[in-house]
Amino acid sequence: MRVAVVGAGSIGLAVAWRAAQAGAEVVVHDPEPGSGASRVAAGMIAPVTESHYGEAALTPFMAASADAWPAFARELEAASGLPVGFRDIPTVVVGVEDGDRAEVERQTELYRLTAREVETLTGRAVRRTEPLLSHRVRAGVLAAEDRAVDPRAVHDALLAAADRAGVRLEPTAVDDLDAVDADRVVIAAGCGSARFGLPVRPVRGVVLRLRAAPEQPVPRTTVRGYVKGGSVYIVTREHGEVVIGATSDERGFDSTTGTAGAVHDLLRRAIELVPETAEYHLAEVSVGFRPGTPDNLPLIGRLDPRTLAATGHYRNGIALVPATATAVAALLAGGDPGPVAAFAPQRFTEQEET
After folding, report:
1. What is the pTM of this model?
2. Which CATH superfamily groups domain 2-84+149-200+294-353?
3. pLDDT tens readout for residues 178-198
4. Which of 90, 107, 332, 347 has the least C-beta neighbours within 10 A?
């Protein structure tokens, strides 16, 4: 079977790799591999702390993908010969002011619905878990089963693993799916999927990458928190990189307007939670576009007998790489894709008809 994948982000490459492993002849079409959300993402694998109200259908799929990540990371590193920066690192969620702490309590009710390990901590206990937290943090929540990975390293490894598996990369854009010479076509083009009629919109996010000197301490957990009503996260890497994010607004593909304010807000919130952040070097400001759908759930499934969608992963693209690749590989082989019925691309058309 000849498979064409449109999009060489992490989702598209993982799908291509799995399809090639199953014996397909695979070509990936993308003029700029990894130039989308895969490059900007922070890499949190957070089935607990990425839970959001109204997105309950995503919970079992997120859980399955999070549980698959350790084995997936080992397999990917073995297949590519490259590290992916996978870390078994818990998350603490904290608030500073009374309103922020109330929001943490509200989110904790949602976190408990995931049926995963969630522990409420006193201020002393949460600062013992994360010593770099500000003394103003009075309480928090620990999500011990959250993890993290380096998305840029994952993308590099997927490129190498796909190449070793025989996947061919075609550095051209696709605008007409009928012109693609393949038995099956998978749309995995992130925000670019909209050009094929899929309901995907760009949700802009600003992410900062800081660099700690070798002698500087960095958080040993992923820190998520609320400061005066605004949210922020801090994710560390083993080599001293500290990722701070992320804003969220809808301005089309505008990558310039308002970014100075976004940087200010993110740094202010991060420093309020972890004062040591102020001592790091600001190395990079990135602006990316998350592929959102009307209900913020991904599009995974058949569009027609020849065409499949694997896009619209919004905030959770990296976290959902293993589960999405497995599901799409099963669909390509005519097998059971697992719990993806809620993500059928036709769901919006069916709603309009009723």
Report:
1. 0.96
2. FAD/NAD(P)-binding domain (3.50.50.60)
3. 999 999 999 999 999 999 999
4. 347
